[in-house]
Design brief:
With 679 residues, the chain is mainly alpha-helical. The protein folds into 2 domains: 373 residues, no CATH class; 134 residues, no CATH class. The chain is built from 29 helices and 11 strands. Strand 10 and strand 11 form a beta hairpin. Helix 4 crosses helix 5. The longest helix has 28 residues. The chain is globular.
C-alpha cells in the first residue's frame, strides 16, 4: 500500500506535459477559438475549397501549397474549411510542445519539471510567433513533427541495433564508471549481469529483452511513426524537407535507404505536381535571395537573432517585444539555458554524481528513474549498450543539426552568401525552396529543447547540493522549472493571445458565396485589381493573400509575383502574367478567351492597379455585382487549356491518395503498434 501513492502520482505525471502543451496552445491561438476564418498575410482559410488544378499543384505557379490545398478541398464539403485550418493549427502547436516533452523524457530521462521547460522552449519562442504572424500555419505542422521525427528515428536506430544483436566490445562499466554518467538500460539482449558482489554494486547493465517477435512489432510501430511524421510534415514541401533532414541525420546508415524511400513516397504530391506542371522546372528569380534573407534584430545581429530562433525576413511579422531590448534579454536567457544543458546533452562528463541527480529526480514518472542521467564521455558511451549508444548519437546528431540550422542561414544573409545562393537558384530548378533560409532554423528546436531540459535539471541539482537545509527533493525541481518557465515567457509576453491579438478570425461578406455559385461555365478566372495581395475592410490593415483561388470553383490565375521590401520577386505564372497584362491594357474579350479565361472577378474594396481594364470589362457579360464584388463572363469561353491535363490530373490524384494513405495508415499503425519507450 505504501507504494500505491507514488505510483499513482507517477501515472498522473505522464499527463502533465500533454495538458500543459494544450494550455499553451490555447493561450497562443486563443482568438481563433471563436467563429470566423484565418486570413493573415499568407494564411487563407475559407468556408469551402474546391479540387481545382491549382489545388492539385497543376497550375501555372509552383506547387508551394501541395497537398494542403487538396486536403482542404477534400474535407471542406463535409466540415467547414475554417474549422479544419484552426484545428490543424491548434493540434500542431500542441504536438510541438508535447513532442518536445516526450523527446526529453526518452533521450534524457528527465522528470516532469524539465519536460515542462522543454515544452515552453518548443512553443513559446520567436519562430512560432513570427511564422504565425506570417500566416505559415501549415509550416508549423512540419515544425511540430520534428521532435516526433527525431523520436521515431531514435527508436528505429535502437530496434535495428537490438534485432541485429549489436553490442559493445568494451568491458561493461563498473559502478564507479556509471556514477553520474551513462544511462544503462535493461533492454539489450547480449548484456548479462556479472555475478556476486559486482551485481550488488550496480554493474548489471542489461537483461534479456524477450522474444524477437516483440522487437519486430516494435520496429513496425517505429517505422509507421516515421511514416506518419513524414506525411504530417509533408503538408508543405518545406515541412517535408525539415522532417527529411532530421531523419536522415539520425536514423543511421543502415536505415537510410528505407528512410529516403518513405520520404519520397510521402512527398509524392508536390514532387509529382512539380514534374507534371513544369512550374518548378525553371530557375527562380535571384532577387528572392536578398528579399528573403534572414534579418538582424536589435542588439543581436543576424547570427544572434537566428540563435534565438528569430530573424524572419519580414520585419512586419515580428512581435513587438522583439523590436525592443527584450529581444536581447530573451535571447540571452534562452542561450544561457541551452549552454548549461549542452554538456549533458552531448554526453560530456560533468561533476554531477548519480546519487545527487537521483535526489533531485525523485519525481520522475518511470520505473527506471533511478538510472543515471546521460552518457558523459565517449568511453562511457561506448561501454553502454546499443540503446544508450543510439540515444547519445541521436542527441549529438541533433546538436550538429542545430549548429548548421543557425550558422548556414546566417552565412546566407552575408553579401557573399547571397551571391552564392543567387548563383544556385538561377541555375538549379527547385532551389527556390531554399531562399527563405530562416525557415530552416526550425531544425534547431529539438536540440534546444533537450538542452533546456538538461539545463533545468543541472540547475536544480546545483541548487539542491548548495542548500543544506533543503530536505524535500521535489520542491527544488518544481521551483527551478517554474522559475525558468517564467524567465522564458516574460520577455516574449506578446506571444500570448494570437501574438498580441494579430491572429484573429475574420468574416467574409456573403457576396463570395454568391459569386462561387454563379461560376458554372468553362474557363479560368482572372482577378482585378492586379497582384496577389489584398487589403479588404474586413481583413484589417495587413495585406493578405487573395482568397479567390481557394474560394472559387474554377482555377484562379495568379502570377506568383511577391512584393518584398519595395521590390518585386518574379513568380512562375507566365499565362497569368499575360492575362493580367491583357486586362490592364484593355485588350479584347477575344484575347482573354484565347488565353483560357472564362470569368473576370473585380474585388472592389481593395487597392491595386486597374489600368485600362474598363475597356475590357465593357465587352463582357455582367453576372453578379454588389458593393464588394463584381463578376463578369467572357463570351464563348472554352476549356481548351484543360483538355490536355486529364492524364496529369489522374497522376496527381494518385499521388495525393498515396500521401493520404500513408498519413492515415502510418498514424493508425503507430497508435495500434505503439513502440515501447527505450528506457
Amino acid at each position: 500500500m505504501s507504494g500505491s501513492g507514488p505510483a499513482r502520482r507517477d501515472r498522473w505525471a505522464r499527463f502533465v506535459p500533454a495538458g500543459y502543451s494544450g494550455l499553451l496552445a490555447a493561450v497562443i491561438a486563443g482568438p481563433l477559438l471563436g467563429p470566423g476564418y484565418l486570413l493573415l498575410r499568407d494564411a487563407v482559410s475559407t468556408p469551402r475549397s474546391y479540387m481545382t488544378d491549382s489545388a492539385l499543384g497543376l497550375g501555372d505557379a509552383a506547387a508551394r501549397a501541395v497537398p494542403q490545398d487538396a486536403l482542404l478541398a477534400a474535407l471542406s464539403p463535409f466540415v467547414d474549411g475554417g474549422l479544419i485550418v484552426k484545428t490543424i493549427l491548434l493540434v500542431a502547436l500542441w504536438a510541438a510542445g508535447y513532442g518536445a516533452a516526450v523527446l526529453a523524457m526518452e533521450l534524457l530521462r528527465v522528470s516532469t519539471g524539465p519536460q515542462l521547460v522543454a515544452v515552453t522552449v518548443a512553443m513559446w519562442n520567436p519562430y512560432v510567433a513570427e511564422r504565425l504572424l506570417q500566416g505559415h500555419w501549415s509550416l508549423l505542422t512540419g515544425y511540430a513533427a520534428l521532435p516526433w521525427t527525431a523520436l521515431a528515428a531514435y527508436r528505429i536506430r535502437t530496434r535495428r541495433s537490438i534485432t541485429s544483436g549489436a553490442t559493445s566490445r568494451r568491458k561493461p562499466p563498473t559502478a564507479e564508471a556509471t556514477e553520474g554518467s551513462a544511462t544503462v538500460t535493461a533492454e539489450h539482449p547480449k548484456m548479462r549481469a556479472p555475478s556476486g558482489a559486482a551485481a550488488d554494486q550496480g554493474t548489471i547493465i542489461g537483461t534479456d529483452c524477450g522474444k524477437k517477435s516483440a522487437f519486430r512489432s516494435s520496429a513496425v510501430g517505429s517505422w509507421a511513426a516515421l511514416t506518419g511524421c513524414f506525411a504530417v510534415a509533408g503538408l508543405t514541401p518545406t515541412g517535408a524537407l525539415l522532417a527529411g533532414c532530421t531523419a536522415v541525420v539520425l536514423v543511421g546508415r543502415r536505415n537510410l535507404l528505407g528512410t529516403l524511400a518513405l520520404l519520397l513516397a510521402t512527398s509524392a504530391p508536390w514532387l509529382t505536381a512539380t514534374a507534371l506542371s513544369g512550374a518548378g522546372s525553371d530557375p527562380s528569380d535571384p532577387a528572392g535571395i536578398a528579399a528573403f534573407a534572414a534579418r538582424a534584430e536589435p542588439a543581436l545581429g543576424t547570427l544572434g537573432a537566428l540563435a534565438g530562433l528569430g530573424g524572419i525576413w519580414n520585419a512586419d511579422s515580428v512581435p513587438d517585444s522583439r523590436t525592443t531590448p527584450l529581444a536581447l534579454i530573451a535571447t540571452v536567457l534562452l542561450l544561457a539555458l541551452v549552454a548549461i544543458g549542452i554538456r549533458t546533452t552531448a554526453g560530456i562528463k560533468t561533476g554531477v554524481t548519480r546519487r545527487r541527480a537521483d535526489d533531485v529526480e525523485s519525481d520522475i514518472a518511470t520505473t527506471h528513474s533511478a538510472q543515471p542521467d546521460v552518457a558523459t564521455s565517449r568511453d562511457d558511451a561506448a561501454c553502454a549498450g546499443g540503446i544508450d549508444r543510439a540515444a547519445l548519437q541521436v542527441r549529438r546528431g541533433l546538436l550538429v543539426l542545430a549548429a548548421f540550422a543557425v550558422v548556414l542561414p546566417a552565412v546566407g544573409a552575408t553579401s557573399w552568401g547571397m551571391s552564392g545562393m543567387e548563383w544556385l537558384v538561377a541555375r538549379m530548378p527547385g532551389a527556390g525552396l531554399l531562399r527563405d533560409t530562416q525557415k530552416y532554423v526550425a531544425l534547431a528546436m529539438p536540440a534546444y529543447v533537450l538542452c533546456a531540459a538538461a539545463g533545468c535539471r543541472a540547475i536544480a541539482v546545483r541548487c539542491t547540493a548548495n542548500a543544506a537545509a533543503t530536505s524535500s527533493r521535489t520542491p527544488a525541481m518544481t521551483l527551478t522549472a517554474t522559475g525558468l518557465i517564467a524567465l522564458l515567457m516574460l520577455p516574449l509576453f506578446d506571444v500570448a493571445w494570437g501574438v498580441g491579438g494579430a491572429l484573429r478570425p475574420v468574416h467574409y461578406p456573403v457576396g463570395w458565396q454568391r459569386v462561387a455559385e454563379r461560376i458554372d461555365g468553362p474557363g479560368d478566372v482572372a482577378v482585378l485589381p492586379g497582384g496577389m495581395f489584398r487589403q479588404f475592410p474586413y481583413s484589417g490593415k495587413v495585406a493578405v493573400l487573395d482568397p479567390a483561388p481557394r474560394m472559387l470553383p474554377r482555377d484562379v490565375l495568379q502570377t506568383g509575383e511577391l512584393p518584398v521590401h519595395g521590390r518585386t520577386v518574379a513568380g512562375e505564372g507566365a499565362r497569368a502574367r499575360k492575362v493580367e497584362n491583357a486586362l490592364l491594357h484593355g485588350d479584347s474579350a477575344q484575347r482573354l478567351g484565347e488565353l483560357g479565361v472564362g470569368w473576370v472577378l473585380v474585388e472592389r474594396t481593395t487597392p491595386g492597379p486597374l489600368g485600362e481594364s474598363k475597356t475590357t470589362l465593357a465587352q463582357l457579360d455582367s453576372v453578379y455585382a454588389d458593393t464588394q464584388l463584381a463578376l463578369y463572363r467572357v463570351p464563348d469561353a472554352t476549356d481548351h487549356f484543360k483538355q490536355s491535363q486529364s492524364t496529369h490530373r489522374v497522376v496527381a490524384y494518385a499521388a495525393h491518395i498515396l500521401w493520404a494513405g500513408l498519413l492515415v495508415g502510418g498514424l493508425l499503425l503507430a497508435a495500434i503498434v505503439r513502440p515501447r519507450p527505450n528506457r
